[in-house]
Amino acid sequence: MTVQHIETIPSVPGNHNLQSYESAYRSFRWEEAEKHFTWHRTGKCNMAYEAIDRHAEGALANKVALIYEDDDRKESYTFEQLSKLSNRFGNMLKGLGIGQGERIFFFMPRTPEVYVGIMGTLKIGAIVGPLFEAFMESAVTDRLSDAEAVAIVTTSKLKHRIPRDRLPHLKHVIIVDEQTEWQPGEVDFHVAMAQSSEELDITWVDREHPLILHYTSGSTGKPKGVLHVHGAMVQHYLTGKWVLDLRDDDIYWCTADPGWVTGTSYGIFAPWLNGATNLVRGGRFSPERWYRTIQDHKVTVWYSAPTAFRMLMAAGDETVDAYDLSSLRHILSVGEPLNPEVIRWGMKVYGRRIHDTWWMTETGAHMIVNFPAMDIRPGSMGKPLPGIEAAIIDDRGNLLPPNRLGNLAIRTGWPSMMRAIWNNPSKYEEYFRLSGWYVSGDSAYMDEDGYFWFQGRVDDVINTSGERVGPFEVESKLVEHPAVAEAGVIGKPDPIRGEIIKAFIALREGYAETSELLEEIRVFVRNGLSAHAAPREIEVLGKLPKTRSGKIMRRVLKAQELGLPTGDLSTIDD
Ligand code: PRX
């Protein structure tokens, strides 16, 4: 591969928290960073203590920890207030007989109750399971039953997607809003909070104690529960400091929902471990409302995603000009490749660089990033964090030289690494099949100066608007529709969303292709899984390409869709 780096955007000199990447990378040891936390003295820790109570007990007690706004609510909470509220929530759970290690899910819009509830859950050593509010019944059921969740925090509107009769472990449904009729097992959040004490003895846990379970998609099988531990805090803290570059006077806004790992690691843990004021905006995306949020709250550090930046770009430069965005000091992006074009546009309209960051649900925190004090090569994800060894390896685990495409891999054993796939040890081991390495499933190369460049997924996982969708889950839902005999699902490149979901289906005997039927099938997937998993395009084929063992050959479908060579067809059925 010949590689040309024509473009570099130098760092603006300034007082960055990490001034020299090279020297930090050479001398860094995790043990040093760990001294910041209680376990260094006591052998025990708790994420919620370090994120909230430590500040509530100290100089930051009256500092605003959470600013919340949506179109109806505008609220703010200090560290001290959050500490007391999360104590109440922890006591509420205890009162329900819930204890260490049990799974509490959150299935609701990102209002302050979610943040209070997550912290309260962690305080008693229970495990948090966040879910997107967009999930429909079968997506919710799969996750709750795999995790054997005992309680869920939700709203009166969403609770209908939780089939209690199919979830024998689920004992409590905590409802955060008003409703007139209460079913057995339902708990009124506001009443129970008022009845619970604001004093709580926090449960001190080992650093390997489970913290949070994030469900994410792979190319085969149902979503997998990625389990993280309290000890991840050291990396959340450090990346908040070095990558987000958080300072005392920052107003930090991460646009991600806590249903996604970005919305927890960087929407909750990293900012609060650093004592920053964390802004949360509920409601839907709109360029005007987003810019107004930055303007009104004087947001200084802004973490978002390529899809959002592309939509903002499409909204036109006049929209930017209508707002005062001069408070912005640092902008970051995650989730999919950040187009060089978007970075150039960001320089023009925001006068700032957008810093790409690469990591995954499984890695728990940043791995490869563009630091504020580093030159950016637009299109590159940057360089590995101090303490992280990233490499490009072949399928047998051999290191590849610069500029050769291969598997992006990380040397095992960083603090925020997942510790298990829930109920599925063999899935977990697949990631570590090449001895000493975590194999990401992404393909990339490293240039001669150590910058990493993302090229694509090795498997069939689809990344649509930054969200990972497993083709198998969509295919399984498609074939549940009476008209669908078989289905193959691929990601098709799209200028705004990165990829869209395209489904190829074969119809059962007796069904004819009509636009009404295709729309019905699309709605069927949307209502069964979620809007983001519903195929935007459906094409009917007489027959799908399959291997002799009966596996749908998605790569053949994709090649045909893109007009590319289909590659090796030796295993195809006919
Ligand atoms: O393919 C990579 C892509 O998103 C995948 C991880 O998705 P998820 O677990 O949902 O977490 C995303 C946020 C942590 C990766 O395997 N991805 C993530 N960041 C980037 C990216 N692709 C290119 N550039 C990135 N910066």
TrEMBL record:
Residues 55-421 form the AMP-dependent synthetase/ligase domain. Gene3D superfamilies: 3.30.300.30, N-terminal domain of ligase-like. GO terms for cellular component: cytosol. Its EC number is 6.2.1.1. One of its GO terms (biological process) is acetyl-CoA biosynthetic process. SUPFAM superfamilies: Acetyl-CoA synthetase-like (SSF56801). It comes from Paenibacillus darwinianus. Pfam families: AMP-binding, AMP-binding_C. InterPro entries: AMP-bd_C, AMP-bd_C_sf, AMP-binding_CS, AMP-dep_synth/lig_dom, ANL_N_sf. One of its GO terms (molecular function) is acetate-CoA ligase activity. This is acetate--CoA ligase. Residues 473-551 form the AMP-binding enzyme C-terminal domain. Belongs to the ATP-dependent AMP-binding enzyme family. Keywords: Acetylation, ATP-binding, Ligase, Nucleotide-binding.
